Every structure is written in C-alpha cells, then in structure tokens.
Amino acid sequence: MFNNKIKIIFIIYILYQTPLYSKSNSFNEIKKKNLSKYFSGIVAFENKDNSEALKFFNSSKILINKHDPYLKRYIYSLVLNNKVSQAINVVKNNKEKNNSNFFDAYLLLILDSLKKNDFNVANKQLKKLNNFSRLDTFNLAIYESLKQYIYVFKENKILSNKKNLGKLSLISETFQRCYLKADDTDLYFENLINDDEADYTRYVYFYLSYLIENNRKNDAKKITDKLDPINTTLLLSQGKSWIQSQNEEKFSSFFSCKNPNDIISEFLFLISNLYSSQDNFEKSNFYLNLSNFLNPKFIFNLSLVVENQYLNEEYEKAKKTLKRFKKENNFYYWYRIKKEAQIIAKQRNKKESLNYITAEFKKIEKKNNKVLFDIANFYKNSKVYEKAIEYYTKVINDLDNSSEMTADLYYRRGGSYERISEYKKADEDLLNALKIDPDDAYVLNYLAYSWLERNYKINEAIKMLEKAYSLKSNDPYIIDSIGWAYYLSDDYTKAEKFLRRAVELMPDDPVVNDHYGDILWKLDRKIQARYFWGSVLNMDDAEPDMIKNVNIKIVEGLENS
Questions:
Q1: How far apart are CA 334 and CA 385, in angstroms?
Q2: What are the pLDDT digits (tens) for 332-367?
Q3: CA pair distance 220, 208, nearest whole angstrom
Q4: How far is the C-alpha of 278 from the C-alpha of 505, rounded, in Å?
Q5: Is residue 45 part of a domain?
C-alpha cells in the first residue's frame, strides 16, 4: 500500500511537470477542480477501486480531449464497471483526435462492429489493431485469433495462411468449424476434449450444444450418460440436467455456434481465464465484461466474475452478481447458495454461514448427489462430522463402484469418523479407499498418521508413509508425517531432517512447528525447541488444547507435557 502511494505521488508530480498530449500546453490551463477530481480518480484507479475512480473521471471529462492517459484510465474504468457501450462511444468520439492510440481502444471498436455483424468494418479496425499487437504476447494472440474468426465470418471458409498459436489455435479452429458446420467438426471437438496436456472439459458443453443444434440428441445423451454425477464441472452438470429433463433447447438459448457474437464471447472468456490464472484479476474482469457484452445470455460465465470478486474481497459486489443465478438453473443456483454461505463466513462468522446453507439446503426438493456431496463437505469443514457422515453415506449408497469419486468418498467419510474417534469405522473406510486406489498418497498419509497418533501399527504406518513419500516427495503434510513417524520410533536424527524441511515449506503451520520443537528437545537443542514451541502460540490455526500443551512444554520441557 505504501509503495502504491509513492507511485501515485510520482505520477501526479510527473503530470504536473509535463505538457499535455494535445490541445493544452500545461495543467495550468485546466481548472484546479477538474485536476483535483482527476487525481482523485487516479488514486482510486491505482487502488483498484474502479467504481470510485469512475465517479471522479465522470466529473472531470473535460480532460478527455486534453490528455491521452486520462482516456485510457476512463475507458478501463467504464468497462470494469460493466459500461462497455459507453466505453465504445467514448472511443468513437475521440478516435479522430489521435487520442485513442492504445490496443484496447481498437479492440472495443472491433467488438462494436462484430456486435452489429458488420465484418467489413471489423476487418478495417483489425488492421489498426495490428500496430499494437506485437507489444504483448496476449495482444498478439488476440489479434491473430480475431483475424481468423473475422475471415471465417466474412468469407465462410477457413483462413489458410495463419500463425499457429498452439492450443489456442486448436480451440479457435474447433469453433470455426462448428460455425461452418464442417464435416470434421466432431473430430476437432474430440481432439480438444481428449487432450492430455490440459483440462478442456468446458468444451464438452459446446460440443453438446453443437450436437443438439444439429438434431443429434441421442449422441449428446450418450456423452452426458458417461459423466460422473459428482466429479463433473458445474457447467456440464447443468447441461446434463437439461438433457435428462428433455430441456435441450436451453443450450441454444445460452450459446450457439451459429452466432458469431457467441463464439467471440467465448474466446474473450478464454482470454479472461488466462489472465485470471496469472492472478491479474483486473485484466481478467476487463475481458470478462467484454465477453458478457457480446453474449449477455450466457450468464454462467458470471461465476468467474464472482470468483474474482470473492478473491478481491469485494463481497457486496459478489452478492449482487450471484443474484443473477435463478432457481430454474438448479446447479448454478446451488453454487450461488454455497458462495453466499462462504461470504457470510468471511463477513460474519462460520456458525451463521452453516445455519444459512442448512436452511437453504432443506428447501431443495430434489437433492442430487452433487448437492449431497457439497453439503457433506460443508459440514465436514465446519467440524460437524456426524452430519457429514450422514450425507457421505447417502451418496456412497447411491453410487456404484465405477464412479471415480467412490474412493474419495470413503476417504472423506473415513476422515470424519476418525475425527469423532470412531476408529474402527474410520480404518474400514480408509482401507476401502486404498483397495480402489492403492497409490493414493493422501489416503496412505491420513491412515498412517491416524495410526501414529493412536500408537497403533507403527511399523506398518511407517511403510505406508514411505510409500506416500515416494509418490509425493514435495508434499509438506506427508513430510511432516514421515518425520513424526521416525520420531515415534526414536530415530530423532532422521526425524529432524524431515521436520526441518516441513517447517521450511509450512512455516505457519502450528502442528509442524510443535513437532519440530519436540524433535529438537530430544536432540538436546532446547533453546531452539522452545523457540518453535513459542511460535505456535502466535498462529491462528493453533487449537486450544495444543496451546495449553505448548505452554507447559515451554516451561517444563517434554517430560511433563
């Protein structure tokens, strides 16, 4: 925050010392009132408070014709506040004044033309966009992709001379063929969906949409029948629900390959996702809003808006966005309830959050396995283990062993049993999970650590942990567990080696620091031991019993703890 303030002061200083871009020679010619509002807008803009920035910019618009950096910030603030049409008009009104010389200004003009299906004008603007495309990798990808799409829309054929953009090209060519109803469209979708290098399951939804649009409902149903009822994305779960209830027309009401705007909207959503994966949420939201401008019908994309808002702690904005998800779209409505519960936990407390989701859960008439699984997880995370077990059991009883989630369900239920000291049932579930997947490092770790805590089958536990470590040698929890196993078997030197690494990987974990303190005490490094025990007292996740025990150890050492 301090660095931001310095940055802003520096910007303001430079602006005061520098002649303006066009009509005015200095800031002296502009009323101080406008300058004050402008600089307040900059501060808000730099602090990512775009709503506040827009208020200030709107009241100092005289600077649009005077100062190019103003225009850029103003347009960004408009788009980030979901005022894309207004942003386009601002660019249009200033494009002849050489004041719109930045990439996104021309992008907005292209999108305006595409919205009107005016591909000739879009192509003309694209040529201007090319001047800025090579300054940034993403911009180059956007330019090259739009070039291909606009050509397809204009000429009704695939552009032959084009740059290869890797997976982005495969996605682009798939949608181009979908638009043209090419004979090899199926093949392109299948190649994209079955790609081993990345998760492209989202595009199963668009393949389903394509199949249904071309009267191939049976082919679409064959695909959805194979989808796991729990381990399936939100979008695909919603699509499967429509097919099961014979509401296939819902697909085209949200997205259609026949519509160029829908296709470009999906492309911009992809760009938004790429920025989000790099934690550039401002850019992500910018392209998200452009995507929603082209296809406002596809409201499911707003789930990414919500996630960005949630991560930025913009909880009131997130709640407002969530209201767009209605009951008729059951899976997204349930997503809304879950996210609202999470926001309540952040803004108020976990108890109120649990009460809210419990009340809303009771109102759902048809509770599918995905909903039951989610509520079970919510109870487990809230440490209401009996309720978690109840709902995990319902899902387990309804699933056959072919489900990819069966082992995971045993793991989760077994963990819940372990937390309430029903060890026989816990062991049974965890061993069942290992029968299905003997190489699940996390189940091996959980069961082995549970045995260590009970002083039960220590040697077998060590063997399981050594196997888990061979599978996941960089996992800090597994490193902690195997270190603790060596401690319990009195091999303190080997234990110290592992716990030292665990502390390096998880310096703020109270259990790891407590364990390391115990090992250091056994190695007669008592000052260091007390240091690591003492650090536990300042950690938020430290349980009351642990704090009580640590306080005893700091005073009396291990002997009386």
A1: 22
A2: 999 999 999 999 999 988 899 999 999 999 999 888
A3: 5
A4: 22
A5: no
Q: Using pLDDT thresholds of 50, 70 and 90, give the confidence band for residue 22.
A: very low
Return contacts of 36-44, CB within 8 angstroms, 24+ apart: 38/63, 38/70, 39/12, 41/73, 41/77, 42/8, 42/11, 42/12, 42/73, 43/8
List Cα–Cα distances, 328 to 221, 232, 238, 260, in angstroms.
Answer: 21, 19, 10, 27
Tokens of 297: 């019908």
The identity of residue 126, as a single letter, is L
Summarised one tens digit per residue, pLDDT across range 173-186 is 999 999 999 999 99
DSSP letter, residue 258: T
Distance, CA of 503 to CA of 197 (rounded, Å): 33
Query: What is the biggest distance separating any 2 CA atoms in the chain, rounded to whole angstroms?
Result: 83
Q: Please name the residue ranges forming H helices in 420-509.
A: 423-436, 441-453, 458-471, 476-488, 492-505
Note whether 413 and 433 are within 8 A (CB).
no
Say if CB 80 and CB 104 are below 8 A apart: no
The DSSP line for 332-399 is HHHHHHHHHHHHHHHHS-HHHHHHHHHHHHHH-SS--HHHHHHHHHHHHHTT-HHHHHHHHHHHHHHS
d(CA 141, CA 122): 17
**Local confidence band at 552 (pLDDT 50, 70, 90 cut-offs):** very high
Residue 550 covered by a domain:
no
How far apart, in whole angstroms, are the C-alpha atoms of residue 48 and residue 61? 20
Indicate whether 214 belongs to any domain. Answer: yes
Instruction: Compute the distance between CA of residue 107 and CA of residue 101 in angstroms, rounded to an integer.
Output: 11
In a domain, 128, yes or no: no
Q: 205 lies in which domain range?
A: 167-258
Number of domains in the chain: 1
Three-state DSSP at 83 gives: coil
Please tell me the distance from the alpha carbon of residue 517 to that of residue 421, in angstroms, as a whole number: 26
Is pTM beyond 0.85? Reply is: no
DSSP structural state of residue 502? H
Given a contact cutoff of 8 angstroms between Cβ atoms, the answer to whether 126 and 149 are in contact is: no
Handedness of CA 199, 202, 205, 211 (dihedral sign): negative
- The span from the CA of 404 to the CA of 426, in Å, is 20
d(Cα 74, Cα 56) in Å, to the nearest integer? 10
| Tokens of residue 38, six digits | 């402008």
- Residues 95 and 89: their CA atoms lie apart, in Å, by 10
